[in-house]
User: Which sequence fits this backbone?
């Protein structure tokens, strides 16, 4: 299966999106890459616009994250259960997936999440409530959490 990549501007910096032949999102990361006008990106771009505008609290996209061990995939699946506007600690995630005491392993899996924002790794925090590790930077993690708390609205550049 082939993949296509595009980069879009966002309030948290450029986002690189990759979709497969069927239009399923396989990667969403911080940074730039190739740009494509392929229509398979339209659903993801539209939903990201709605998310940043505070109009969308959940994504309804086909997602097929690339790679990952069985444990990492289990963590990524659990991330999808953290409600919009809420957070969970690494330890809580570890306990939920049946691996209490594996908070650090959850942190590593969280850091390898290939579909940021859509698979909300930004909602995972330290057990003391602190913001820890985020591939997009802690400032962007705070921005995403503030957005979800209703503290701000961001606009995705229509271009």
Assistant:
């Amino acid at each position: 299966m082939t993949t296509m990549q595009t980069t879009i501007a966002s309030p948290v910096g450029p986002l690189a999106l990759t979709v497969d032949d069927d239009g399923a999102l396989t990667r969403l990361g911080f940074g730039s890459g190739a740009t494509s006008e392929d229509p398979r990106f339209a659903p993801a771009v539209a939903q990201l616009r709605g998310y940043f505008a505070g109009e969308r609290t959940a994504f309804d996209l086909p997602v097929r994250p690339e790679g990952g061990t069985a444990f990492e995939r289990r963590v990524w699946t659990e991330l999808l259960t953290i409600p919009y506007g809420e957070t969970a600690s690494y330890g809580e995630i570890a306990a939920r997936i049946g691996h209490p005491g594996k908070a650090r392993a959850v942190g590593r899996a969280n850091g390898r999440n290939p579909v940021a924002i859509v698979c909300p790794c930004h909602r995972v925090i330290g057990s003391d409530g602190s913001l820890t590790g985020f591939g997009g930077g802690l400032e962007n993690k705070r921005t995403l959490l503030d957005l979800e708390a209703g503290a701000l609205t961001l606009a995705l550049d229509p271009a």
The chain has five helices and five strands. The CA atoms of residues 7 and 151 lie 27 Å apart. The helical segments are 42-52, 70-79, 90-96, 103-111, 138-148. The chain has a mean pLDDT of 92.
